[in-house]
Specification:
By secondary structure, the chain is an alpha/beta fold. It has one domain: Vaccinia Virus protein VP39 (Rossmann fold), CATH 3.40.50. The chain contains five helices and nine strands; from the N terminus they run E-H-E-E-E-H-E-E-H-E-H-H-E-E. It has helices spanning 12-41, 134-141, 181-191, 209-226, 234-240, and strands at residues 4-5, 78-79, 106-110, 126-131, 149-153, 166-172, 192-203, 244-251, 256-262.
Length: 263
């Protein structure tokens, strides 16, 4: 289950890791903490199978796009587990602040970053949380992760797991910085069993000419500064990769989307 893939350069988020949580703090208070909790709840809710996806292929980015935060920086030590089982601390990270249903199955998080999602994991969750940045993972271990969840240093495009290993997967603010979204989605389809959920919380190219073009211009700079694409259409990318869209919830003028898919 453990593999090591050579990397060409250190992940950019190694340098950003010490400042990451401080930079996100205002957005966490206003919006992201609530949406992180909603993302994890969507893994176990069975009442949202209605298709509510809008026009994900709209050129203006309606209900599509990509993410943010670069928790999944493109180049890295694709090393499985960094100190491996030391991440399975049994007593931290399970302060489930929300009323989750218990999750009976193996769960995969892509781009765990510094572990901001750990408090929202459903009770009983076990599986793996992957992240390409060694420094992000080091900070995630200090949280620590929920019992039964192993931290793995790896890229989303080359997951070190067998086919159909997981019952569900999720990512928050990750696909903006994935080097190849099609490859990452292909990997998710491979490692998540048929019928399993894939839930994404992503910042995307917003709808409308004005906002959409503004984010196109912004992305020109953010990609060069820290590999963050502000104008991706993640819902459309997921559907093109073969995932079935169950619903897409727009937030913050459509700049952030909660995307619920099924393999």
């Amino acid at each position: 289950m453990t593999t090591r893939t050579p990397h060409t350069q250190p992940p950019i988020y190694d340098a950003f890791a010490p400042h990451y949580e401080r930079a996100l703090r205002p957005l966490e208070r206003l919006l992201l903490t609530r949406l992180r909790a909603a993302t994890l709840r969507a893994l176990t809710n069975d009442d949202d199978h209605t298709r509510n996806v809008g026009d994900v292929n709209n050129d203006d980015g309606n209900n599509s796009g990509n993410n943010d935060d670069g928790n999944n920086s493109s180049d890295s030590d694709d090393n499985n587990g960094d100190d491996s089982d030391g991440s399975n601390n049994s007593d931290g990270g399970s302060s489930h602040g929300d009323s989750h249903q218990r999750f009976n199955g193996r769960l995969l998080e892509i781009g765990t970053g510094t572990g901001l999602n750990f408090p929202h994991y459903p009770p009983g969750a076990h599986g793996a949380a992957t992240e390409p940045s060694r420094e992000m993972l080091r900070r995630a271990r200090l949280k620590p992760p929920p019992a039964g969840v192993r931290l793995v240093q790896n890229r989303a495009e080359a997951l070190p797991f067998a086919d159909d290993t997981f019952d569900a997967a999720f990512a928050t603010l990750v696909f903006c910085s994935v080097a190849s979204p099609p490859r990452a989605f292909a990997e998710l389809r491979r490692v998540v069993r048929a019928g399993g959920r894939v839930v994404l919380l992503e910042h995307v190219r917003p709808p409308g000419l004005l906002l959409g073009h503004a984010f196109d211009a912004l992305s020109f700079f953010t990609v060069r500064l820290f590999d963050d694409h502000f104008n991706r259409r993640t819902a459309a990318d997921a559907e093109r990769a073969g995932l079935r869209l169950l619903r897409v919830e727009p937030h913050a003028l459509g700049i952030v989307q909660l995307i619920v898919c099924e393999v």
